Amino acid sequence: MALVNEHLMKLPDNYLFADIAKKVNSFKVTHPKADIIHLGIGDVTRPIPQACAEAMKAAVDDLTHADTFHGYGPEQGYSFLTDAILKHDYAQRGVSLAANEIFVGDGAKSDTGNIGDILRHDNSIGVTDPIYPAYIDSNVSCGRAGTPDKDNRWSNVVYIPCLAENDFTPELPKQRVDIIYLCYPNNPTGSVLSKSELKKWVNYAIDNDTLILFDAAYEAYIRQPDIPHSIYEIKGARKVAIEFRSFSKTAGFTGVRCGYTVIPQEVTAATLSGKRISLNRLWSKRQNSKFNGASYIAQRGAAAIYTPEGKEQVKEMTGYYMRNAQLMKHWLDSTGLKVSGGENAPYLWVKAPKGFSSWQFFEHLLYNAHVVSTPGIGFGPNGEGYVRLTAFGDRQECEEGMKRICQHL
Amino acid sequence: MALVNEHLMKLPDNYLFADIAKKVNSFKVTHPKADIIHLGIGDVTRPIPQACAEAMKAAVDDLTHADTFHGYGPEQGYSFLTDAILKHDYAQRGVSLAANEIFVGDGAKSDTGNIGDILRHDNSIGVTDPIYPAYIDSNVSCGRAGTPDKDNRWSNVVYIPCLAENDFTPELPKQRVDIIYLCYPNNPTGSVLSKSELKKWVNYAIDNDTLILFDAAYEAYIRQPDIPHSIYEIKGARKVAIEFRSFSKTAGFTGVRCGYTVIPQEVTAATLSGKRISLNRLWSKRQNSKFNGASYIAQRGAAAIYTPEGKEQVKEMTGYYMRNAQLMKHWLDSTGLKVSGGENAPYLWVKAPKGFSSWQFFEHLLYNAHVVSTPGIGFGPNGEGYVRLTAFGDRQECEEGMKRICQHL
Q1: A348-369 pLDDT, tens per residue?
Q2: B296: nearest CA partner in chain A
Q3: CB-CB: which of B15, B285, B296 is closest to A11?
Q4: What ipTM goes with this model?
Q5: B295–A255 CB contact, under 8 Å
Q6: What is the C-alpha separation between B291 and B246, in angstroms, rounded?
Q7: Residue A354: DSSP 8-state
C-alpha cells in the first residue's frame, strides 16, 4: 500500500488565519450589524501601481499574437526582469550579483518552503521567536523540526527570543545551529536589524558554518537610511546566505504572484563526507525538476516597478501604508499601550494590557472595538501576550479602528 | 555545518532540453545560415484564446481599483474557476466532484513534483516507460527512486514497457508497486487508453492498494469519442487516483502558468500502523504551508476557456495543432517510417530507421533536415531508438520540416 508522509500529519489542519476567520464568523453571527475592521491578515489592499498594470496588459497582448507569443520562459526568469533586479535592487546599493544568482519564482512563501528540498532532513534549525509560522511548518512537514512538546516547541528547532527586554533584537544563540531563518524587516514584530547587528549574524554563520535564510520581503518599507535592505550589504554574506524577495508587499502583488530568490555561487553546504556543494546548483536542479518558471505576465508586471513611473508609484503605495502605520502608532501610543514596529515595517506589535493573553486581547479587540488583529501566539511561544496589527488597510478604516481601540481599552 | 540533500545530487545538472539546446547551438556554429525548424520541445506557439486575453486584461484592471482589488485568494482557487471546472470538465462527462476536491495551482509540473511531499520516501514507484522525465526526477530528488544502474534505471522504480509490440499500451506490472504514474494522452508516445484498458489499471490499484497519479494534461487533444478524458470516468477511481490537469496545452498557458489537481475525499494512503489518511487533507496541509495560491489574473484567464467563446477558441487552437499532427503523420507514413501517436495527442513517436539510436537519429534530422526533434532515450530506457516530434509548431514550418525529412531519409 502507498504510505503517507506522517510528518505532515503533525501540522494542524488549519493555518492561523483560518482559526481567526472562524472566530470572526462566530462574532458576526451574534453581531450581524457590527462594522468590522480587518487589521489582521498581512495582505495588501491598495491597487497595484499603474505602471505594473499597463505592463501586464501589454504582456497579455503579447500572448495574443504568434510573433510576440511567450510560452515556457527561461527557468530562472526573463533577463528583462533579472537585469532590472540586479541593477536596481543590488548594484545601486553596492551589491554585485550575477544573473545566474537570481531565481524568479511565484512568491516567497513557495521559495522559503521549497528551499528545504535542497537540504538534509536532519539539519538543526534556528528561528527568531516570534516568527512567520510557515518557516517552521515547512520544516515540520519533512521531519526536520522533530517533535513538539506541550507548548508546541519543536525538538530540533532552537528558538531565539525576541522580547521587549531586548527591544525585539535577537541575541546569537548559545547553541550552534545548521540553518537560521532571519526575516528583516520582521514579521510580526516590525523590528529591523542595523548593519552592525546583521553583521553579528553573518559572522556567526561564517564561524559556525551555518546557512542563513534571509527573508527580505518587507525591505521596501525601510525608512531609515542606514538599515540594510539586503544581507549582501554585509561583507562575507555571499558565502553563507540565501535571500528571499517578494513583489507582494513591494508592489501589491499578493494576487499576482511573483518573487525571487538569490543564491550566490559561493554559498555551499556539505555532504556527509564533507564535500562542499554549491546550493545555487542544487536549487537549479530542484527548480528544473519541480517548477516551470514564473508567469510571463507577472514578470512583465514586476519589471515595471523598476521604471521611473513604477518607482514613483511604489513609493506612493508603500508611503501610504507607512503613513497608516505612523498614525496607528500615534493613536496607540496615546493610550499607553506598548507598541513597537511601524517605523520601518508595515506591522505594529502591541503588548496586550491587563495580563491578557494573545487570544484574550484578540477577542477583547474584536468584541469591543470590532477590530480584527492577529494573536501573537500564532507566531510562536514568545508571541504570547501580544497581537499584531497591520498597516495594510484603508486610511479611514485604520484611523476609525484606532479610535475604537482607544475608546474600549 | 548545514548538510545538503544528497539525493538531489544524483540528478543530472541539465534537463534533457538543455542538452538538446547545446547540440542545436553546436550545429548553428557550423551552419550559421541553416533555417532550423523546432519540433522538439513540447511548448505551444499559437496565441492564447482571445476570451482568455480579455478576461486577463479585465483582471488586471480589477487590481487597479481598491474596490475590485484581489490580494491573496482562497488557497484552493477562486470558486469562479473551480465551479467552471466542476461543471465543464467533470459534470458534463458524468463525473461528480466537490469544490474542495479541486486544488488550483501554477501548473502540472509543480503539482506532479510536489505531490511527493505528502508520501513517504520509501514507497515503490511504477512508471510506464518511456515517460515524462520529471516524474522520475522528483522521486530521485527525495531518495524515493533509489539508486541508478549503468543504464540509468533506478532501483526502486518499476519500468512498465510501452513498446511497438504492445502498441504502446502498458501491461499491468507483475510486481506490485505503491504508486503508479499514468499520463494519458501519453507524453511522449501519443498513445491513449480506452475505457477498458484504463479500467484494468483502476482495478489493479484497488486490488493492490496502489495510488495512481494520473496526468491528463493533454486531454483536450482526444478526438475519439470513447476515450476517457478523466480517470474518474472509471468506477472506483475516486478511491485510488489523483488527477492532474493543466491549462498549458489546452489553452496555450505555458507562459501564463495555471493548472489544477483533483484529490477526491475518498483517496487515502496509510500510516505505518495501517491507519488510512485522506490525501486531500494532507495535500491541503502541504499547500497551506508551502504555496500561496495561483495568480488571480491566470485564474480569470483559465475560467474564460469555459465560456462559449472560450470553448470555441480552444477548439480552434487544439484543432490547428491536431491538423498539424495529421499532416505530419501523413508525410512520415509516406516515407515508410513507423509512426504512432498524433491521433488523440499532439505528439508523434517515430521509430528511428536503419538501426539509428535516438541521439543518432536526432543528429541525422538536425544535420540533414535541419529539424529539431527530441531523442526518445530522454524519456527512459524504452525510448531508445525513437524520437518525439511535436505538432505544436506553425503549420507551414511543420509541413516544410516533414518535406525535408522525407528528402533526407
Answers
A1: 999 999 999 999 999 999 999 9
A2: A255
A3: B285
A4: 0.97
A5: yes
A6: 17
A7: T
